[in-house]
Design brief:
Length: 55
């Protein structure tokens, strides 16, 4: 994993959490919230796997 992947994943994680919170507060479609939630989960899993693989 190159050096720009981790900061990009952290940024995507933060943005997807914020977008999920906004979507939840605005009563947007469940599918949109689910999409943001899956992106958040994927980023968290990849970051955790990278952390445990490189410690």
């Amino acid at each position: 994993m190159t050096s720009w992947w981790r900061p990009a994943l952290w940024l995507l994680l933060i943005l997807s959490v914020a977008a999920n919170a906004v979507a939840s507060s605005l009563d947007v479609s469940v599918v949109v919230g689910l999409g943001f939630g899956l992106v958040t989960l994927a980023c968290a899993v990849v970051l955790a796997a990278h952390h445990y693989r490189h410690r």
